Amino acid sequence: MLLNNAPRSGKDGAIAPEACQWASTIAVAGASAIACAVSFAVTFAGAVAVTGIVDVFDSSAIAGKLLILGAPGMCFLNNAAIAARELLHQFTLVAILDIDMHHGNGTQQIFYQHGDVLTISIHGLPTNFYPFYTGFENERGSGEGYGYNLNIPLPTGTNEASYIQALEKAIDAISSFKAEALVVATGFDTFKFDPLGCFALESTSYNKIGRKIKSLCLPTLFVQEGGYFVEALSENVRQLVTGFESA
Ligand SMILES: [Zn+2]
């Protein structure tokens, strides 16, 4: 199921407020779909920037609550978190797997004290990559949420083999958690040519990532976030979806 109805940005290139709201509305629609009968959904819910289908929200990389004023990243609403909250109406345990290049600091903060949402982020090592101050392995959650936040930071130049190893670790954690539904905060800024990234994934790497995620056999919602090498973005999305579908 593909959901792709985000309104474009305003005449001056600024993000229209209704685009933010619409992006989240689509994420919720995707969550509702997989909570019913659809096995998976993909939401290309970001507002459209002047350069094409660049997702300007990069939703997980925000600090704070579901609605952020003055977000430090490129996002206003955390669509993955909103979708997870929606899924909790139907499921007891939900996992968010953040495969965007940047640490999902906002998602981590939102669910840091919650034991019903497992948050996992695979991202650039924060010692030398944005957002710098969060995303370390020792951030494990607190209170009822202790043990339900997993950060897997990876160094500059991480290639497919190393990335897949990290992904397998994440998948094992989701499996052990016994998640009943999955939200994938889907970033493509891990691509080798991405101007904002520092990993070295190929287009075909996303096919393998899709296959690995499918191995969980969970109702799955992909919420697109980062990805700034526009020339390869549609191909990378296609690889992820076809990998997931063919597994
Ligand atoms: Zn990102």
Describe the structure using short key phrases:
single chain, seven-stranded parallel sheet, 34% helix, binds zinc ion, Arginase, Chain A, 6 helices, 247 residues, 7 strands, alpha/beta
Topology:
Elements: E1 2-3, H1 17-36, E2 40-43, H2 79-87, E3 94-98, H3 105-111, E4 117-124, E5 149-154, H4 160-177, E6 181-186, H5 203-214, E7 220-224, H6 230-246
Parallel strand pairs: 1-2, 2-7, 3-4, 3-6, 4-5, 6-7
Helix pairs in contact: 1-2, 4-5, 5-6
Bound molecules: zinc ion.
In the CATH hierarchy, the third-tier topology is known as Arginase, Chain A
Side-by-side strand order of the widest sheet: 1-2-7-6-3-4-5
**How is the biggest beta sheet arranged?**
7 strands, parallel
Instruction: State the CATH architecture.
Output: 3-Layer(aba) Sandwich
Using only C-alpha atoms, the radius of gyration works out to: 16 Å
What is the CATH superfamily? Histone deacetylase domain
Strand fraction equals 5-15%
The number of E-state strands comes to 7
Which stretches of 5+ consecutive residues score pLDDT under 50? 4-11, 45-71
CATH C-level label = Alpha Beta
Mean pLDDT: 82
Overall shape: it is globular
- The helical percent reads 25-40%
- How many helical elements? 6
